[in-house]
Design a protein that fits this description.
Layout (H helix, E strand, L loop, with lengths): L8 E9 L9 E6 L2 H12 L3 E6 L13 E12 L5 E17 L5 E6 L9 H13 L2 H10 L5 H11 L4 H9 L2 H21 L1
Parallel strand pairs: 1-3
Antiparallel strand pairs: 1-6, 2-5, 3-4, 4-5, 5-6
Helix pairs in contact: 2-4, 2-6, 4-6
Length: 200
């Protein structure tokens, strides 16, 4: 993964997402249709090519009803499908907290980088649990292979967190956890999910 400058804060266009999180060292392709989100992509293209991706809360009452921990992402590719729809590919770089939100429709966030922490010895069991799960789900393995952008073992863990069939709130909790906690949670969760599928 690229080196991350954790000093200070940066102003970045904000890209809110529904029912999905973007994790560091993971990628995400999606279609954007909200005018404010399209404007955020245009602003990113005119500046440093990055956005802060935050998930909307499940009971969001408005555009500012967001989780404050998300991921700074490179806008890797963008294609206009129509005047109102854009297909975009995002590569997650590092986690960040939105300290301040500025704007009404188009939001700009003061983003402060969050230390990912060292996954220590926890990544091994997490990757083993993921291998067991993917052995039973060959289609998912092929999909994750296409999505993987980094050779680091944590990229497998982060892709699993991003794409496994879990609730949006569970996904957000994984994003808010540091690398070691995320590995521990995903290794336990994957084995529990596999047991549930095999006995259900």
């Amino acid at each position: 993964m690229r080196a991350v400058d954790l000093a200070g804060s940066r102003l970045l266009p904000l890209l809110p997402l529904e029912d999905v999180c973007l994790f560091p060292a993971a990628s995400l392709a999606l279609v954007i249709s909200r005018p404010a989100s399209v404007q955020a992509l245009r602003l990113a293209a005119r500046s440093n090519g990055q956005v802060l991706v935050l998930a909307q809360k499940e009971s969001a009452a408005g555009p500012r009803d967001l989780h404050l921990i998300g991921t700074v992402a490179d806008v890797r590719a963008e294609q206009a499908l129509s005047p109102l729809e854009h297909r975009v590919e995002l590569d997650g770089i590092h986690r960040a907290r939105a300290e301040t939100l500025i704007g009404v429709d188009l939001l700009v966030a003061e983003a402060v980088a969050i230390e990912e922490g060292d996954e220590g010895d926890e990544w091994g069991p997490a990757v083993e649990a993921l291998a067991r799960y993917l052995h039973a789900h060959a289609d998912l393995r092929a999909f994750l292979d296409q999505q993987r952008r980094s050779p680091e073992p944590m990229s497998w863990v982060n892709l699993a967190c991003q794409h496994l069939p879990i609730t949006a709130s569970a996904r957000q909790k994984l994003l808010e956890a540091n690398a070691a906690e995320r590995c521990l949670k995903i290794s336990r969760g994957l084995d529990a999910l596999l047991r549930k599928e095999q006995t259900g």
